[in-house]
Amino acid sequence: MRFLLDHADLADRTHTVQYDDDLYTFDADDLWHWLAEDRTVEEITLVGHNPALLDLANRLANEPLPALPTCALVRLRLRIDRWAELAPCCASITHQLIPAWVDYKTFKKRRPLKPKGVHAHKLLKRTRALLRYQSDMIGALEPGVRVGADPEFMHQYRTHLRRSRSVGQALLRLQRNKPLKRQLKALKNEAQATSELRDLDVLLMRLRDWEKETVYRKALIELKLFDAFTLKRNDQHQALLERLNSQQHRERMDSWRAFLDSADFEKAAKAVTLKSVQDAVDELVAEHDRRLESLTEASPDGDFHELRKLLKKLRYLLELVVDPKGRRMKALKQRQKRFGQLQDLTVQLQYLQSFQEQTKAAKPGLRKLLKDLSTAKTRERQAILAMDPFGDFVIDPGR
C-alpha cells in the first residue's frame, strides 16, 4: 500500500474514512455520479466491488485496465481542477498493485504454464519451447521484482535469466554462433545486475532466523544489523528499478525473444545431438574431476566457486537431453546444493565481517555468530573435499 501511495502513511487517514450504503454497488454509474459531486478534498480512496471499480477506472483512464483482481490497488491522477469536471479519459494511471505482484504464492497459481513442447522428442522443438517459456516467466516475474515485497520474485527472476543463459551456453559449446554469443553477453549483464540484491535478500532472511536464537539475538538487535542491511538492499533495489526502466533493458529482452524465433537460433539448436552433448559432457566431467582433485584445505574460495559454476554448466547441458528427475540428475543437484550452501556462507561472512570492521562492533553475540558461520563454512569445504569424482558420466536420456 505504501508503495502504491507514494509511501503515504495510511494510518494517519483513518479519521477520514466514510461509509455510504449507496456506494455498496456493482454499477459504475453510481460511483461516477458520487465522485462528480463538488467537494474540497484533493484525493479520494474508494474501496468497493467489481465490476463497478474496474468499469469506473476504465472510464476515467486513458489506458484501460484488463482486470482489477480482488485486493488490487490502482492510483489515478485526474487532469482536472474540480471534481465536477470529471470526464471520460481525464486520468492517467500512476501506480498499480495486484496481489500476484506482492505474494509469490499467489503469482505461482497464475504463472505461465509450461508448453507441451518442452517435452517434445525433437531437440530443436524442445530447446526452443524451454527458452520461450523461460522468457515468458522473466516477463511475468518482472512486476513482482519491481514491487520488491517478496524476495522469491527476485530469486525466480534471476534463476530464469541464468538458466536461459546456461542453456544458450550449452548450445554455444556445441557450435560457434556469433549472434547467439552476443545475446548471451546481454543476458549475462542482466543477470549480474541482480547478484548483490539476491545476496542481500538471502542475508536478511538469515538475519531474521538468527535473531530468534538467544545466543545472537541481543547483539543483532542492538547493532541494528537488519536495518543496516535493509538500507543496502533498498539501494540495490532502486538501482535495479532504474535498470528495468531503461530502454536498453527492454531492447535486450525483446531482442532475446526475437532471436529465439530466428534462423540463427535454429542453426545453433540443430547442432544438439545425443553424441554432441555426450562429447561436451565428457569434457566438463573431466574438467570437474581434475579441479576437484586439485582442491585442498588451503584452496581459496574462488577455486570452489569456479567448480560450482562448472557444475551449473554441466547440469544445464544435460537438461537438454536428460530427464531432469532422473537418478544422475538428482545426484548432480545434491552436489550443486552443497556448493550453494558454501557460497551463501562465504557471502554472509563477507557482509558481516565488513560490518564489524566498519562499525568497530565488538558484541559477543556477533563474534559468536561469525565464529559459528566460519565453522560451518569449514565443514562445507571439507565435505566438498571428500567428494568422489564423477568418473564416467554416460547419458541416459530417460525420456
UniProtKB/TrEMBL annotation:
It comes from the Bacteria. Transmembrane segments: none annotated. Pfam families: CHAD. InterPro entries: CHAD_dom (IPR007899), CHAD_dom_sf (IPR038186), His_PPase_superfam (IPR029033). Residues 120-389 form the CHAD domain. This is CHAD domain-containing protein. It comes from Saccharospirillum salsuginis.
